[in-house]
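Notes from hallway chat w/ T.B., transcribed later so I don't forget. T.B. wanted the structure written out for a chain they're using in a teaching module, and asked if we could keep both sequence and structure tokens in one place. Agreed to drop them here.
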Amino acid sequence: MAKVMHIDPARQLAAAEHDLADDFPAVPPAEIHSMVQRENRRYDGARVRDYISILVTGAVRASLLTRNSSRRISRRNGPH
């Protein structure tokens, strides 16, 4: 019988936070942690939990990229 490997979801989310902090050094780690926790709560009660860390990471990354992109545009255009 094949052994099933169980990966702790809390460890997966912690690793996701670490990766996001590396990718977005200008964002305080506490803010990334808060974003990850908020996004993770969206999946409370989900029957399938295997891919939640991937979904959470993708959503937080998209949010940070969108925010980063709009800040770059605002700086480029200057005050209105």
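Follow-up for T.B.: The chain has three helices and no strands. Might be a good example for the class.
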